[in-house]
Specification:
9 helices, metal ion binding, metal-binding, DUF34/NIF3_sf, DUF34/NIF3, 259 residues, Udp-n-acetylmuramoylalanyl-d-glutamate--2,6- Diaminopimelate Ligase, Chain: A, domain 1
C-alpha cells in the first residue's frame, strides 16, 4: 500500500487542520509514493523504536509526538536528533506524526481515554478547536452521580493499568464534573471554570498545582507517558479497518521509574 493512501485514511479522522499552530503533525520524513507493508506505532521515536522498526522491516513509523518540532539547520550524527534522522533515511523508514489533531479529534485520544476509564456520565468538548467546534484538546465529564476522589483515583489506576498516580487535594472530596486532558496539562489550568471539581491530566508542576489547589480544584496527575501511551492501541484499531499489512505496537517504557 502507498504511504499516501495510509495518510489519506488517517487524515479523514485526524484532520491536520485540528493540529495546534505550534505543532508539527503530518509527514515528517518520507516520500508519499513509497510502498508500505509494515507499520510500527509509538508514542515517541526513540533510538530503540527505530531499531524495532528496522528489525521488523517496517517502512513507516507512526508516532504521537513529532520527531522534529522546531527548525534545524543541519543534520549530522553529532546530535541525537541528527543521528535518528540519518538512521531513518538510510533505512528508508518514513515518519508520520499525529499529535494535537489526535488529541482534539472526535473519537480521538481524549475520547479514547474516557472510553478506557468508563466512569459513565455525559461528556462534552473542552478547549474547542477554532476550525471545528465539535473538536477540542480536552473533555469535560459530568458523572451520573457524585463520587469521591479516592474512588475515581482507584478506577483510573485500574483501567489504565498504572502502578502510581499523584493526587493533589482532598481524597474524600465529592466530585461531579471532571476535566480531562492527556499529556502535559498544567498550562490549561486557567481555562478550567469553577464548575469543575477534578482535573485529570499529566506532567503537573509544583507551583501551578499549588495555585489550582488554592482556587479549590483537586487534581490527579497520571503522568505524561501514562496518559498518552494508549495512542498506539488507538491507531492500531484504526489501521486494522484499512491496512492489510503488518501493524506493530512498539515496546516502550516509562521515562521515569519510581523506586
Amino acid at each position: 500500500m502507498k504511504l499516501e493512501d495510509i495518510m489519506n485514511f488517517l487524515e479523514k479522522k485526524y484532520n491536520p487542520e485540528l493540529a495546534e499552530k505550534w505543532d508539527n503533525s503530518g509527514l515528517i520524513i518520507g516520500r508519499k509514493g513509497s510502498n508500505v507493508s509494515a507499520v510500527i506505532i509509538c508514542l515517541d521515536i526513540t533510538d530503540d523504536v527505530i531499531e524495532q522498526a528496522i528489525a521488523a522491516r517496517a517502512e513507516l513509523i507512526i508516532s504521537h509526538h513529532p520527531l522534529i518540532f522546531s527548525e534545524i539547520k543541519r543534520i549530522t550524527n553529532d546530535t541525537v536528533l541528527g543521528e535518528k534522522i540519518l538512521k531513518l533515511a538510510e533505512n528508508k523508514i518514513a515518519v508520520y506524526s499525529i499529535h494535537t489533531n489526535a488529541d482534539s479529534a472526535a473519537h480521538g485520544l481524549s475520547d479514547y481515554i474516557l472510553e478506557k476509564l468508563s466512569l459513565g456520565g455525559k461528556k462534552s468538548v473542552w478547549l474547542k478547536n477554532e476550525s471545528d467546534p465539535e473538536s477540542g484538546l480536552g473533555r469535560i465529564l459530568e458523572l451520573k452521580k457524585e463520587d469521591n476522589v479516592y474512588n475515581i483515583s482507584k478506577a483510573v489506576k485500574e483501567k489504565l493499568n498504572l502502578k502510581n498516580i499523584r493526587i493533589a487535594g482532598n481524597e474524600n472530596k465529592r466530585v461531579k464534573r471532571i476535566a480531562v486532558l492527556t499529556g502535559a496539562g498544567g498550562s490549561m489550568i486557567p481555562e478550567i471554570d469553577n464548575t469543575v471539581d477534578l482535573y485529570i491530566t499529566g506532567d503537573l508542576k509544583h507551583h501551578e498545582t499549588l495555585d489550582a489547589l488554592e482556587a479549590g480544584l483537586t487534581l490527579i496527575d497520571i503522568g505524561h507517558y501514562e496518559s498518552e501511551n494508549i495512542f498506539s492501541e488507538l491507531i492500531k484499531k484504526d489501521l486494522e479497518e484499512f491496512f492489510n499489512g503488518k501493524i506493530i505496537q512498539a515496546k516502550e517504557n516509562q521515562v521515569f521509574k519510581i523506586i
